[in-house]
Amino acid sequence: MQLVLLPLLCLQLLSVLPSVAAHGFVHIVWDNTKTYVGNIPQAEPTPSIVRQIDTVDPVKGANNTFLNCGQDAQLAESVATVNPGDEMRFLWQGGDLSTWPHNIGPLMWYMTECPGNCTSYNSSTAEWFKISQLGRIPNDPNGDWYQNNIYIQANVTTNVTLPSNIAPGNYLVRHEIIALHLATSLGGAEFYPSCTQIRVAGSGTGKPTQEELVTFPGAYSDTDPGILVPDVFDLPPPPYTFPGPPVAAFVTQGAGATGTGTAARAGPTTTATSPGGGAGAGKTCKLVRASPSASASSSTKRELEELAPVPVARPRPRAHSVSGIMRDLAVGLRAIGSRH
Ligand SMILES: *[C@@H]1O[C@H](CO)[C@@H](O)[C@H](O)[C@H]1NC(C)=O
Ligand SMILES: *[C@@H]1O[C@H](CO)[C@@H](O)[C@H](O)[C@H]1NC(C)=O
Ligand SMILES: *[C@@H]1O[C@H](CO)[C@@H](O)[C@H](O)[C@H]1NC(C)=O
Ligand SMILES: *[C@@H]1O[C@H](CO)[C@@H](O)[C@H](O)[C@H]1NC(C)=O
Ligand SMILES: *[C@@H]1O[C@H](CO)[C@@H](O)[C@H](O)[C@H]1NC(C)=O
Ligand SMILES: [Cu+2]
């Protein structure tokens, strides 16, 4: 019943709905030891390992040059030193720092080696290899996506395990969400790329082959089956074809094969912190279908408390038509409706 009432509430709130809430960016990145804050789009940048973008709006079109590292991404000042096999976690948020607003579509991670220091490397012609991709949660009867995990609950991260045998060097990690809620039409897919600068230590030898490398733009086409997806809302859920190359062979061949980031592996670094909030707490227009009670781990709480103060600047909202919001809503409703 609640689900029936929510849309009415949403319609009333449309006039005050901040448009920045509909899209988002990577706000915080963790490696095994440290927390790094990514700069809010258009905020005065502070030293970070995450390349700052200038708007939370999605990159549209597979040929868009901003597919490389996100909207007008700038070089970042810092580099995180990590080890092969480390887990990295990423907190995606809406432009108003709300919970990530989308729940349909894949999470993918690519890497490219920076010749020299990533702090000065322009990656527009870089050749990338894929290290992980997460689509629908296996055997989920509703066809839910891993992306749904960061939508239904605040402060849940996306996670990747770096290849356990990767050669040492300076790398960019290109983490991308594709939101497919409008992907039933050509050009509807929303791309959210984000680049993080790391230096991998150790003595690994793993490298991709030449055939596994792609450029951005270049890797995708608007008509790829994973980008134009007319059956994305069908049930039972049809198999999903990831765009781009397969995960590089060395990633899965390395000792203790990793790279298909599973939640279970995270163990002690549980990342849900939603004190008393529950799903969608404080959000106006999210169509929430479940209310998992968050059990915040004390270690994560500590991590979040230790974060540097968030800059006060907010992204300047771009014009975002009400009809676009309505379409989002309508599609969201279809998605929710088809689950019940
Ligand atoms: C994207 O680029 C490809 C390759 O150059 C070209 O065939 C295609 O027409 C372009 N698509 C659009 C929408 O411009
Ligand atoms: C990288 O090079 C492209 C093409 O010259 C340019 O448009 C872009 O602004 C550069 N990016 C950075 C971060 O300097
Ligand atoms: C890369 O650049 C950063 C920032 O300038 C600096 O701290 C770091 O020492 C540099 N690393 C190397 C290997 O030059
Ligand atoms: C990331 O890992 C945590 C556990 O550490 C898990 O709660 C969360 O669901 C994972 N994220 C995704 C998108 O699966
Ligand atoms: C999520 O984390 C941010 C800090 O990054 C914090 O300000 C916010 O209160 C947290 N939200 C919830 C629901 O825990
Ligand atoms: Cu959006």
From TrEMBL:
Enzyme class, top EC level, equals: oxidoreductase
Region of interest (Disordered), ranges: 259-284
Give start and end of each Auxiliary Activity family 9 catalytic domain: 23-229
Q: What GO molecular functions are on record for this protein?
A: metal ion binding; monooxygenase activity
- Signal sequence segment: 1-22
According to UniProt, the reaction catalysed is: [(1->4)-beta-D-glucosyl]n+m + reduced acceptor + O2 = 4-dehydro-beta-D-glucosyl-[(1->4)-beta-D-glucosyl]n-1 + [(1->4)-beta-D-glucosyl]m + acceptor + H2O
A GO BP entry is:
cellulose catabolic process
EC code: 1.14.99.56
Q: Where is the composition biased (Low complexity)?
A: 259-274
Task: Give the protein family.
Answer: Belongs to the polysaccharide monooxygenase AA9 family.
The protein's name is lytic cellulose monooxygenase (C4-dehydrogenating)
